[in-house]
Structures
1.
Amino acid sequence: MVFPVEDKAREEAVSQIWDKLDDASCSDEKIEKAFYNLETSLGLKKEEQTVELVHREHIRNTKRINWGRVAAIWAIPFIMVCFSAYYYYSAKDYVKETLSEVTYMQRYAAMGTREEVVLPDGSKVWLNAGTLLVYPSSFISESRNVYIAREGFFEVSKDSGEMETPNMLSGVVKSFGKDGCMCLVTTNYLELEVLGTTFNISAYPDNNQIMATLETGRLQVKVNKQPEKYFLEPNDQLIYTPSTGIVQQHKVNAVSHSDWRMGGLFFGNVPFNDVLHTLERVYGVKFHVRTSIYQNQSLRVHFNRNESLEQVLQIIKILVPGIEYEIVGKDIYLR
């Protein structure tokens, strides 16, 4: 059974992601740039420039003008332009047809659950409770773009050159290159560029902090569309606080922050309210705080895997002296 609260959470996640997709839609300018790159990769641009340079050098070094030869020289770039235009529009039709066949897939992990998703390139994504992932049915460009709302752990495959694109000139396939393709992960406030990387991203809208934690590889992070870029090495964590705009970067035990995949819970000096929000998602409950004395409280604790809610609350009671709780069905009252 899906509760109205979860319906609202899912709708917010969907709205958040589709806003991102609208911003990232394929504009005419991007398509034109793609075709320019295609022509260059086919060697058409290079050949045109070479022919023109040969022609100019010929004019400079020739004292007597042979109009027949000049006409022949001019005919070559003209033919190449026609040749280029033909393949340009052929490729344009091909790409448009390919784009029209790509659909966006979405996966949602309901409250109290976790989901594992395998992307078209073999990369894996684990979704925490209440998380929505949107990705294309196939990756047709050099960058692999996915969109996530809430929390996920990414195991991004480093492309070995197997991702291919048709070469319109010869009918054979051409690899993007041995260095592989970049994966671009977009969420609210953060944009992450990765290649052969494992990392955790936590971006719940009701939390005070947005966190990106790198386990292996290298991660480039842009915050809230700002020009500055942050580079993370293994066990680096970037914390962004939207209310203040402050960005912090420090060393952590990265594996602890992804233990939720196996049923564990780790809070590293996390605001008390954020802890409650996490417990709501993991256990599918609702907290009602009847006092404000814990607003400035933070918790640093690592719960064992698959501990019951009662066990978690007992530990919190020890860590936060004076706190009392009452469980009534799916509602928990703190005082």
2.
Amino acid sequence: MSELELPIYQVDAFADRLFAGNPAAVVPLKAWLPDATMQTIAAENNLSETAFFVPEGPDFGLRWFTPTWEVPLCGHATLASAFVIATILEKGRSAMRFNTKSGVLQVTKAGELFTLDFPARDIVDDVAADADAVADALGAKPVWVKRSAYRYLALFETAAQVESLKPDFGKLKATPKGCVMVTAPGVDCDFVSRYFAPFAGIDEDPVTGSAHSTLIPYWAQILGKKKLHARQVSARGGTLWCEDAGERVYMAGTAKLFLSGTIKVPA
């Protein structure tokens, strides 16, 4: 059986040092592989996301896979992909456009800072009918639980409550959405969050850019300010510099290269 050798990079995104932020695998391609092959590579990598991109004129097509499924939007693996392009494949490039299932996503680089231009996502105003099941899975009662397009949002009173959560992932996976963003006002930042996604094969995602598509508009309205400083308080932790721009949100962070190499897959 013949094999393809493909480059692969592992990048810590939304990280100011190695072993922080959210690690993503990035696999540049000349043409798309079969979906099943990309899913298998993502499962083998066993990171929260593996990103694949192909050239499309001056732009790139970009897709993201967890170990178990393809996701419609991912922030940290988009940042990681832009990092690979701007610092390795096309050194000095400062602007990238990605064509994705969530539309065109733009990333700009200034110094070491990468800024992502993402669609804003609102939460549903009604309290989730299954709020009690979510609270039971989290092991703590939030102020409320509401629904966004793909997951729950649970608000807590303090950052300390968010940091101390020890969810029952089996119970959380059994809820109708199986994924929840938890958030609270910050102490040394505007707001904190964590993201639990056992439905997607990720018990806890270290830093979740796509979740901030919902968190940024919410906290901008609550705090009455457009520019926000956010921390995701997972064990690895990550920092995001955010801005609410109406139908779009901006989130910025830095990244560090951990690994570069090749993988072999059946041709």
3.
Amino acid sequence: MKKFKTASGEPPVLHRNSANLMQSMLDEVKANIAILPELKSLIPPLQPTEFEQLEANILRDGCREALLIWQTTQGVLDGSADDTPLNVLIDGHNRYAICTKHGIDFKVALREFPTLQAVRDFMIDNQLGRRNLTPEQMSYLRGLKYRNERQAAGRPTDTNDGAETVGEKQAQRTRDKLAKEFNVSPSTILRDRDYSEGLDRLEPELKQEVLKGTRKLPKEVVREIGRQGGEADAAPLTLADINALSKPSAAPVQETPKRSKLGQTGPAHPSAGVKSLIEKISQLASTLDPASSTFEADCDKLMALLKEAKKQAK
């Protein structure tokens, strides 16, 4: 049987009645719940109306579903020898916030996990099993699941014969497994990976707004941010950063040599059609606004104009 400890590290005071003993331990847990920002960020935020409805339900009926608690130690989290006990909240963050705000009692259920990564995997799977996820939340969680499974598998070195690396084969197996699990294409899983990496590079508040649906950012823009990568200690991207990334450079286009029919080269001159497209692109790029409700549609239009200009310039 698991030996519980109090927040001070001491065994709980024994009671003659085993029910009283268990209640005493649970009360101790409820009084010392720890919230890890990293784990909380794995919980897709509720829409304002959803949170209001949950709050109204709890005020009327009480908190009927138990909060899930991971009993662990500080050493398990940071790899140290610190055996200070911790009661980490892994499910029920919104319910916990509402209950503590209004002084409402709640139940807890204790779960055991060997590692922090095992907790992450459980939380992601738990959220993916819910039906009220937005497309953005679903893409983010699928991409995060792929990244976690790839990280757990490691990155083996190349084979001696220069053939496909073991790491590439594992990546393909992971991609195909998740594609089958979620009934999507393998390429969708890879796009989800880029999307989740892009979102994780944003400011926390901006990331939460995107996942809530209160801030619209084109998925392709977010995926491009993810594909570009970045230093681990790089500053999070702001809305102004994304606005700058979304606009093409204003630098003049360099003329490239154009081969004539006789094999000679000469300066290339854009046609009237290309010039017209360039003017449209410049005008549209100068008016892009991430805060606008038409931002995503404008970005799609801009990409279409760029493709058309490239096609005509050939």
4.
Amino acid sequence: PLGVWAVRGNHDSPRPGRPDHAGQIYQAAGIPLLEDRWVSPAPGLVLAGTRDLTRARRHSADPRSHLEQALSGRPQASVTLLLSHTPDLVETAAHLGVDLMLCGHTHGGQIWPFGHLVSLRYPHLEGLHPIGAMSLLISRGAGTWGPRMRLWGRGRIPLITLARTRPGTPPPLSP
């Protein structure tokens, strides 16, 4: 009832000289993309999103600018949820006052022992992790990257229920 929003992943970001098929699909479905911006679907709630930080790191001098732009000007008294395909700059997001950061990208390692290599770049592959006062939730997702298979790491899409709590009471979180 509050709406549907999305962020792009590294494989559906537009590329120069190519049609933006993913963008056309989102637009046709009426799903706004949160690309370095935020919305407030309800009083006291901010939903922010970044462009894919993996691509930004490859093509931008400082991917932090995407994160800062996504969070700029939001009401400080609000709960902030950040959608970021890539679990990157998590400490920066926590420092900027994000309460919950939702990510994917790692596929939970997807194929054992490949997760060990992925964890060299992304220390958190999947699940719920406290980062200061922020909670980081990384989904394995339902899809795959590269080989169309998973080995000892089934796909998973988390279901998140947001509930109001009394001021000063941390929300109950479980993976």
